[in-house]
Structures are given as C-alpha cells and as structure tokens.
Recover the amino acids of this structure.
C-alpha cells in the first residue's frame, strides 16, 4: 500500500526567506526614502542659503543707494584693512519668521573707482552649509557720458558721436552714432536753433542719422542742480586734505587764478589780476605738488593749460551760491594727458561755464572730464576768429548747449567762427573710474555677480 506525504517541512523555510527578503527590501526602501528626504532637505537648505546670500547683496545695494559713501554698514568704526566686516543680519521670511542670516564683507572703491565689492555669506536656519555670492556695485558719474546736456542738441549730417549721449530735452540726430543716444523726453518741440520752424513736435530722438537701434527715449533725466551740493562737499574736502585757493578779492570776470599743469605731477599757480583780449595778466604764486586727495578747489575763476600726469579734479565755485558770482574755467592752451590708458584723469568742474579761449592754439588738444553746472562747455563766439582743429578726449557734461564752432546756416556747414573741424572721443575709462570725487549721478546698480565656492 502507498501513502501520501506532505512537504510542509520544506515550505516554512521558503516563507521565512521570502519574509526576510521583503523585510530587507523594506528597510532598504525606507533608508532610501530617509536619504532622499535628507538630501531634499539639505538641497532646500542650500538653496535657501543661496537665496539669503543674494538678499544680502540686494540689501547693500539698497543701503548704498541711501548712503553712497557708507562702506561699514552704518558702523562708525573703520577697520584697519579691507574687506570690512563681517556685518551679520537676520533674514526673515514674509511671515516675519527668522529663516537664516547673511554676513557681509565690503571692499570700498579704490581712489580711481566708484565700484564697491560686496561678499555675502548666506546661512539657512538649522543648515550645515553656506553659500557665498560676490557682486560689484557701481554708480555712474557725470563723466559716464561722451556728452550729457540739459538742453536740446543737434548733430548735423557731417557729425558723429562716440560713446553715450544723453539730453534732458531732446536730440535731432542726422549724423552717425557709435553708442546709445538717449533723451529724457518722449517728445519735444525743437527750437529754430535745431533747424526747424520752432513749432513742430518731434520724438525725443529724431533725425536721419543712426543706427537708430541705439536710440532710446524716454530715460531718467540727470539733475544738474545736485552739483551745488557736490561743490560744497568738494570745497570741504579740499580744505581738509587737498588744496584750496581762496577768493582773490572782489569778484570780477578778469580776476582769479591761472593753473599751469606739469607732467611731473605738480602745477604752477598764478594770480590773475587782469585779462586783455583773452590773455590773463598774472603774478606767480607757487609751484604745488598734486594734492593728497586729488582735489584742487578754487573759489574764483580759473584759467588752465598744460600737460598732466596724475589724477586730479579742479573745481571752481564761489559759495554760498549766488548767480552774480558764479565762476568760469577758461582753457587757454593745450590741456593734455601723458597717457590715455586710464592712469591719467583730469576733471574740470565750473559753477558756470567751461570756455575755450579765443587765444587757444589753432590746433588744440583737450583731454579731460568737463562739467559746466549752470552754463555751457563752449567756444564762445569770438566775432569771426576761425581756427583749424580741436581734438577732444574725455567727457562733456553741460547744462546749456555745447559747441566748438558756429556755422552759416545757408548750408549749415560753413564754419564762420571757432574750430573748422573737431574730433571728439569718449574716454571709456571714466565710466567707473572718473577723476577724484567727480560728481555722481543716478543710483548704484549691480555690475556683475558670481557665486564663490569658498568663504571669505
């Protein structure tokens, strides 16, 4: 007889093995889930730290926009070396709950620059890592334009611009532009001085020139009135750590100082006691080394010429500001640099005009950043004295209309006074490396930024 037998003794181990496998798989899946959750949390914390670091940059951009010379985050203590800091701030979310901190390390501009470097180290709450962002924050100066004017302007068909051009009023542009051409107005009514009937409304920038793809309007205007406050600050700075020349006496258009620039970083100072047919009568005062802070402030009229090898700003103004005593800087000879690589810069800031004298050479060179707060950068009409060529390298900021010559408007091309030809080149070095303490305009912006892989 045969008997049936069960194999129950062999099934149990198989079930146990399967259970162990499933259990191990569950543990592995749980570990993966925990690991993924931890990684996701760490990634979230890392991203949060990066966002917080960026917030630190944005905070200091705002801070400089309200206090453009504060590089210590409101602290009265100036550290002995750069970068200054760390300056640490809590960072809250929209609900007002702290979610981390950022620490700032600030490197102020060097003497030849308006660019501030800011490092921001972000840390998320309960996070173990940090993220670091570095940005350069810059503010443009009045020397950021090839031509900046508070009046309307006309570029004729034979004229060209090199570098950015901005008018607070409007521009007729029939020439060739190499750079932005901007107006602060959407439309304006050009005067007859722009070759129109004086009644027709035109766009902020208009004409037959181009390329018109670089024409922009409207853009924010530039306030020339702020230069009054800048002159006050420049006078104070020159009196404390620069060179200050007091008024020569009762104000007169034929009194002031002549400054003769030299290529050894000094200049000669002469007292002007009279001017006959454009030529100043002078008495030698002294030879002066370049001021420590690069500022020469003259509380009187200035006549200037020479070759410069350094970085300096000559400001001219009588304070308090009274229109009857506004001062002028007059260029009577070549004003030239020893190098055009950005190492040399000269600013001429006049309360009224920056003039080119009728006694200036037939072939004249002017290198510099010229700023006429209330008046014009101009060759004043001389009654029919026609000269050869003017070569300009730098930047012009003029409240009123700028010109190097005057034409007969039968053809609007025949020069009847001033320089028959002129070449104007924008010094690109001036955009964020202007002459010392040259007035700024606008607000700070982020020039560039990048994440750093190592902390300060």
């Amino acid at each position: 007889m045969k008997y049936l037998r069960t194999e129950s003794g062999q099934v149990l181990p198989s079930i146990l093995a399967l259970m162990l496998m499933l259990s191990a798989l569950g543990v592995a899946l749980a570990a993966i889930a925990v690991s993924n959750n931890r990684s996701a949390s760490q990634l979230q914390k890392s991203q949060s730290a990066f966002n917080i670091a960026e917030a630190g940059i944005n905070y200091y951009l705002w801070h400089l926009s309200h206090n453009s010379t504060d590089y210590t985050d409101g602290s009265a203590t100036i550290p002995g070396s750069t970068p200054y800091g760390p300056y640490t701030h809590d960072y809250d979310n929209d609900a007002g709950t702290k979610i981390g901190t950022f620490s700032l390390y600030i490197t102020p501009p060097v003497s030849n620059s308006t660019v501030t470097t800011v490092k921001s180290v972000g840390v998320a709450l309960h996070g173990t890592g940090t993220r670091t962002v570095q940005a350069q924050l810059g503010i443009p100066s009045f020397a950021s334009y090839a031509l900046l004017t508070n009046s309307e302007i006309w570029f004729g068909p034979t004229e060209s611009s090199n570098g950015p051009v901005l008018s607070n009023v409007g521009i007729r542009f029939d020439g060739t532009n190499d750079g932005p051409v901007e107006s602060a107005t959407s439309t304006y009514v050009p005067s007859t001085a722009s070759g129109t009937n004086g009644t027709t409304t035109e766009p902020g920038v208009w004409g037959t020139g181009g390329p018109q793809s670089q024409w922009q309007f409207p853009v924010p205007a530039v306030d020339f009135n702020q230069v009054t406050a800048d002159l006050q600050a420049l006078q104070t700075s020159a009196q404390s750590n620069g060179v200050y020349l007091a008024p020569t006496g009762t104000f007169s258009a034929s009194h002031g100082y002549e400054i003769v620039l030299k290529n050894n970083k000094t200049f000669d100072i002469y007292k002007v006691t009279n001017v006959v047919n454009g030529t100043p009568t002078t008495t030698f005062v002294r030879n002066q080394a370049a001021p420590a802070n690069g500022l020469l402030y003259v509380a009187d009229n200035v006549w200037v010429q020479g070759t410069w090898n350094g970085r300096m700003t000559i400001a001219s103004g009588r304070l308090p500001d009274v229109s009857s005593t506004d001062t002028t800087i007059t260029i009577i000879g070549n004003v030239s640099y020893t190098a055009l690589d950005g190492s040399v810069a000269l600013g001429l800031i006049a309360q009224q005009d920056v003039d080119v004298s009728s006694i200036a050479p037939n072939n004249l060179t002017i290198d510099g950043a010229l700023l006429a707060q209330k008046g014009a950068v101009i060759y004043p009409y001389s009654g029919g004295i026609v000269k050869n060529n003017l070569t300009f390298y730098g930047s012009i900021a003029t409240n009123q209309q700028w010109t190097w010559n005057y034409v007969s408007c039968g053809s609007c091309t025949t020069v009847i006074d001033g320089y028959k030809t002129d070449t104007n080149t924008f010094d690109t070095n001036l955009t964020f490396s202007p002459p010392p303490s040259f007035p700024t305009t606008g607000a700070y912006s982020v020039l560039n930024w990048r994440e750093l892989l190592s902390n300060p």
Notes: The chain has a mean pLDDT of 89. Residues 8-66 form the longest helix (59 residues). Helices lie at 8-66, 227-241. Residues 49-139+443-452 form one domain.
